[in-house]
Fold:
Amino acid sequence: MLLELANTVIYEWLGMDAESRFGAAVHFFFYDSLKIFLLLAVMIFIIGVVRTYLPQQRLKQWMSRGGMWGNFIAAAFGAITPFCSCSSIPIFISLLKAQVPLGVTFSFLITSPIVNEYLVVLMASEFGVPITIAYVVSGLAIGTLVGAGIGRMNLGHYLETDIIDSATDDEQEKRYSFGGRIRFGWEESISVLRQIWVWVLVGVAAGAFIHNYVPQESIERIMQATGIFSVPIATLLGVPMYGSCASIVPIAVVLFEKGIPLGTALAFMMAMAALSLPEAIMLRRTMRLPLIAIFFGVTTLGIIVTGYLLNILEPLL
Structure:
């Protein structure tokens, strides 16, 4: 239905040439934008309703348990929250104020932007279910292991305790009626779409351009030139950039189709989602520079290792 609508609007109403690169690029942009926004609206609404059933205070208690169990719970909680790296910081502060261990809070902070429901929907529709599952497992593993590693370093003295002590605890348990749950899901869907719609359009536009104007031979030559270093280069390029995963998925799909290895494309996605300059600036209010540097460095290393692993497993996916 969406494909027929795109064909009608682009080729019949606007009269563009289906054989031209520009016409094909506009069609790609129109069709993918409609598909992505429809998927996002529906899935964010559904997950928003589900989230009203989650016991917030009990989650905090689970996160505070010893060993890596708390890290995994925090990473899983981050995976079901539809936040970008900057939007996750208020919850990160709330968890610290609730005296959740530092490494556990980092597990949430890392995983929340890397894995979320609208990303899973987009990846499943573009990459397929097996690759999406591998990505989700990788994201959870990075959050769990990196958070556990940071927790063992005893870095609590690098926190700016004034903002943590003064933060308001707005995570008290709420009770919802059925209508309230529906309203929460609707408001969540609208809120998230308002935050990311520009990034989605920018990402789709970039994907449309690459798909129709960048020769596959050029991409392959670049990848051959970087060789074994393609994963760290892609990760380091993604770190200084900022945007929602929803905006980078279309680009990653097209790059993958152009010959870039799967792990390299997904490493770029992870770095762009989990680490950004705006996030570092916001984190400076809660922690000192050495801790920010350790957080970025260890997370970057985890993403690079995951990228290489996914490249090795690509034939099986």
About this structure: Residues 167-172 have pLDDT under 50 and may be disordered. The two ends are 29 Å apart (CA to CA). The CA atoms of residues 267 and 307 lie 5 Å apart.
